[in-house]
Amino acid sequence: AGCEKEPSSYMWIYILLGNMLRGIGETPITPLGISYLDDFAKEENVPVYVACLHTIAMLGPMFGFLLGSLCAKLYVDIGFVDPGSITITPQDSRWVGAWWLGFLIGGATNFLSAIPFCFLPKSLKKPEEANNEKTSCGLLEKKGATRKKLTPENPKSRKWSVMLKGKYFCMSLKKVLSNRMYFTFLCCSLLQFSGFIGFLTYKPKYMEQQYGQSTSKSNLLIGITSLPPVGIGIFLGGFIMKKYKMGIIGATKFSFTMSFLAYAISFLHFFVGCENYAVAGMTVSYE
């Protein structure tokens, strides 16, 4: 009874709030960044720029796994205990790595990398051949000018009323989701990411259990082998779209072909596996 003790630490709340704030800060980068590129870049260069954006987004988790591998080699209480007094190694099942160190390093790096965003201009010089009315910025400017002519009322009060009612947001959401091509693409992306996240989440544990690898080495191998090919594939996809100047239909056919090939190759995972470990009392008898 003396060994049983209820957990009394509430540190998990700080981890929860930290991840929530990180998500709020990171989410606008991709949608708003793509809109920024689409508005102020040449039309034929947009696929490459978007591919570069997503490729960099894949390099982040790769470096995260490498950093996690390094932190997992360090004992969780590093800096608070004498390293010479630690009698267990990372291969021991009781070993707990310095998981918290990655949050500090990642948080500091995120803060420093966010500073240059403060110096980005609100708008850039548009390419000469680009039509201002086709960009989202041009459409908003035109729409705003029309509203000023029709409604000379206070724009601030109108803005707050629109935000509170959410009428235009619901109408826009309904219009987007009623687009069959976009909705199909949304469902396809949902399935792809669901499979990829599950693969990425449980593969390190699988390597630990089946191949007897430490947590540090499993993270290192995942970071080196799994994520770089995805980043290279995203970049090559954008480059191919730029080279052959694909439209919506061409891009859809290209996406379908690549997705089908990826599915066919991933199907081979069913033929790869290892036998379970012999565990006394569970899979084999104690004798």
Description:
The protein is an all-alpha fold. The protein is 66% helix and 0% strand. It has 11 helices and no strands. The protein has helices spanning 11-26, 29-40, 46-72, 99-114, 136-150, 155-165, 167-177, 180-211, 215-225, 227-244, 248-266. Helix 8 runs antiparallel to helix 9 (215-225). The longest helix is centred in the last third of the chain and has 32 residues, at 180-211. The radius of gyration is 25 Å and the shape is globular. The relative contact order is 0.11.
* Structural class by SSE content: mainly alpha
* Proportion of residues in helical segments: 55-70%
β-strand number? 0
Shape: globular
The secondary-structure element order is HHHHHHHHHHH
The DSSP helix count reads 11
Extract low-pLDDT stretches. Answer: 132-137, 149-157
The share of residues in extended strands comes to: under 5%
Distance between the termini: 31 Å
How would a crystallographer describe the biggest sheet? Answer: none
Q: Whole-number radius of gyration?
A: 25 Å
Q: Kindly state the mean pLDDT as a whole number?
A: 78
